[in-house]
Amino acid sequence: MFFKKKKPTLYAVANGEFIPLEEVQDEVFSSKMVGEGFAIGQHNGEIVAPIDGEITNIFPTKHAITITTDQGASVLIHMGIDTVNLKGEGFELFVSENEYVQKGDRLAKMDNQLLTERGKDTTVITVVPEIKSVKIVNSKKMVTSKDKILVVEK
């Protein structure tokens, strides 16, 4: 008897408004060049792990974190739009590379007020690069970090 591998399921990375990836105000993400996923807007800046896995990359500018799941899928959490040029200002990290996190663990805090003052969009984008077969399972406009959002089908 063969056991099916559990499909990676992503939860919301913040409590806020669910935004379909196609509606994100960044063409690189909305066109799905980077991968399939979703976004969260109107949040309080508290960013949590959407899935269990290892922190395999933190951008030097602190605005993006990659988690590699137990199933081997990479998950990119991109905090804000056009925030790379802030060079880390407005982001506080609570994790390090090679650290193992569990769903719901605190990853980062965004200073939404500072980002807004600098003219940056605070939307948090979560994508699964290199995966094209996903299913959005969320049906709510406002979500919490306890809400399932996406299941990787392949």
Automatic annotation (TrEMBL):
Classification via SUPFAM superfamilies: Duplicated hybrid motif
Stretches assigned to the PTS EIIA type-1 domain: 26-130
Principal subcellular localization: cytoplasm
Compartment(s) of residence: Cytoplasm
Keywords assigned: Kinase, Phosphotransferase system, Sugar transport, Transferase, Transport
Gene3D superfamilies, alphabetized: Glucose Permease (Domain IIA) (2.70.70.10)
Keyword Kinase among record annotations: yes
Record has Transport as a keyword: yes
Pfam families, alphabetized: PTS_EIIA_1 (PF00358)
Listed PROSITE patterns: PTS_EIIA_TYPE_1, PTS_EIIA_TYPE_1_HIS
The name this protein goes by in its record: PTS system glucose-specific IIC component
Organism whose genome encodes this protein: Bacillus chungangensis
